[in-house]
Amino acid sequence: MESGAVDPRLVHRTARIRLRVTRRQADRCYGLLRSAGDLWAWLLDTNRERLEQGAAPIVGYQALCRELTTRGPAGELSIVGARSVLGRYSDAWFQAAKRRRKGEPAGFPRRKRLLVPVRFHHQTFQLDGQRVRLPVARGRPALWVRIARPIPYPAAQVRAVTLVADGGQLWLAVTAAVAVQQHDLDPDRVAGVDLGIIHPYAVVAEQVGLLVSGRAIRAESFLHLRDQQARQAKTARRAPRPGQRGSRRWRRYRARLRRVEARHRRRVPKPSGRRFRCPACSLHGHRDLVGAANIAATLGGGAISATLPTLVEHRRAGIVPARRDRRRHLHDQRRRQRSCLASGHPDAHKGSSGCRSSHATAHPASGEDQATRPNRANVA
């Protein structure tokens, strides 16, 4: 590197990718996670016995590594995977101690887990396209797994991979060091950012807008159900027993549930749909972009909602959902006249006058953020 050159700033980004494994590969992966859970339980039992004997617990990473040598092997879990569990335990313990010193409520790790994520750092795993070799114990056959989509980062930037089990499926969390892009920004240019759930980011700067859709993330994490479940949990203790429908207790329970739902609706007054229409000036457009324009106007970024941007770029965050089952069109003759034929349909290449999107191309099914062509039409 030449003298005087400045190293670019790096940030670590993580993409979670689903694994496509055979039954034998899945058994071996779950075996690694169970071995990590056994190691986690061994750490908890060891420190509990030390506390009962009046000795200080072992929480430092180096001390835990020395203690690990007395335990012996843990199934197919390699030394690298075992040390990642030790590091996770040590970090959790010191984070809890730090929060307690600040007077915040925090608990030390005392709960046993059946499956514990296993992390493999740089140069301990191997990438070969969409195949990844995970390290295992010495003398065991190599464990190659296939990921469902390409890694969104260059292979040279990948720093670690973590094997995770979530929702009954196996995932690989890929962490990469990405350079921060430096831009020559105009300090006099103000942008407004409206945060949300369905659209995490809606940005407006003068005549340019950016709208990020988070529906895929919302569907993956079931965010649309968590809020409702939290409200129902408040009334769950008052719920009547089975067979009490129509009783006085049932009517009180239903009335309380309706009050909670009504209180929730009053806290978030929003217009119906995603379009906003002003009854005074007849301005109409995407309500998140209107909010971002108002936020920018408060800091000198133009007039309040006078005009909406003429150039809006749409992006999508999360994994794009898979297309419908192509066999559904074969069993539903009525939809064949109203919707386009899926790829693989016997009449897909003949064309259909009733198809409204016969020349549309399919969206790619990979990537974290997918950008579409900017829409120069006014969103209003």
Structure commentary:
- The chain is an alpha+beta fold.
- The chain has 2 domains: 10-179, no CATH class; 192-317, no CATH class.
- 32% of the residues lie in helices and 21% in strands.
- It has 9 helices and 14 strands.
- It has helices at 23-52, 61-68, 79-101, 215-221, 223-236, 248-267, 287-298, 328-331, 333-336; strands at 10-20, 118-121, 126-128, 131-134, 143-147, 158-166, 169-179, 192-195, 201-205, 208-213, 275-277, 284-286, 311-317, 369-371.
- The strands form 3 sheets. A 7-stranded antiparallel beta sheet has the order 2-6-7-1-5-4-3.
- A hairpin with an 8-residue loop joins strand 4 (131-134) and strand 5.
- Helix 1 (23-52) packs across helix 3.
- The longest helix has 30 residues, at 23-52.
- The protein is globular and about 75 Å long.
- The two termini are 51 Å apart.
- 18% of the residues are buried.
For the record, the count of structural domains works out to 2
Compressed to H and E, one letter per element, the order equals EHHHEEEEEEEEEHHHEEHEHHE
Kindly state the mean pLDDT as a whole number? 77
Percent of residues in helices comes to 25-40%
* Uncertain stretches: 1-6, 338-380
**Overall 3D form:** globular
What oligomeric arrangement do these chains adopt? single chain
Structural class, judged by helices and strands? alpha+beta
